[in-house]
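Lecture notes, unit on protein representations.

Consider one protein chain, 307 amino acids long.
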Amino acid sequence: MVAESTDVAVGIDIGGTNIKVGLVDAEGAILNRLILKTAAYPEPQSLVEDLAGRIQRLVEGNSLLGVGIGAPNGNYYRGSIEHAPNLEWKGVVPLADWMTEATGVPCLLTNDANAAALGEMLFGDAKGMKDFLFITLGTGLGSGLVVDGQLVYGHDGAAGELGHVIVQPSGRLCGCGRRGCLEQYASATGLLLTYRELNPEASSNTTSREVFDRAAAGEQAALETFEHTAQVLGLALANSVAYTQPEAIFLFGGLAAAGDILLKPVREHFEANLLNIYRGKTTIRPSGLVESDAAIHGAASLIWQTA
């Protein structure tokens, strides 16, 4: 008896260190996966050539609907990675077109935070929601804005960069070249900068996890660090509500894993800064995605949302 073929999508997450690839069915189950080292592909064309063969073997016996890619500086409209600072690939890389040509199936690409937002909507706790924000709190701060069930891309594909809203004019220098961006205060990087300002004797090797552990143990400088981080983030999120009035704001990533040490004061500062007509109407909650699978789920969601 011949086994029945299953419709699947391939999700690819391209990071500065690793490239994660997974085969995802309609329910979000990851049927197969692999991890590649980004440094093994100094030229993007070599990745496409290698992946085309790997995907064929990965999909064997199933029906491939398409390939979704989440990547830094990914432009959905053009299907390209554009001037990504943490990749060796320079300039504009039309990766989606190359993947479509190599695999013979549709390929869609967007930035990693947008992909994760789609993953939350299809496979996480935003199921059934049409209006929400998805915030990634990692080394930087990424975001995806969903309005009326659709990701907001803007006219040129670069909308939704809340991490680069200026919250402190003439503040900390950001990797984007400007000063005072939100991600310099509300991210793992920003948390450490704040902690070292409050505790000059801290080692330069201190990690954000260690700051969390110290806050959990009651260290004053660490507690003040989380309070300051929450104050800045809560205000920025309150301001964002005036633009889209989301039903929920999901926090994802390493810093979000701090739990109530971060979430409780963020919620307090958020509510305190909301316009009266918005108070009590938007919840801030942790993401429902499993962190180890979120990138693959998000990338595959690009295909499943159009299936």
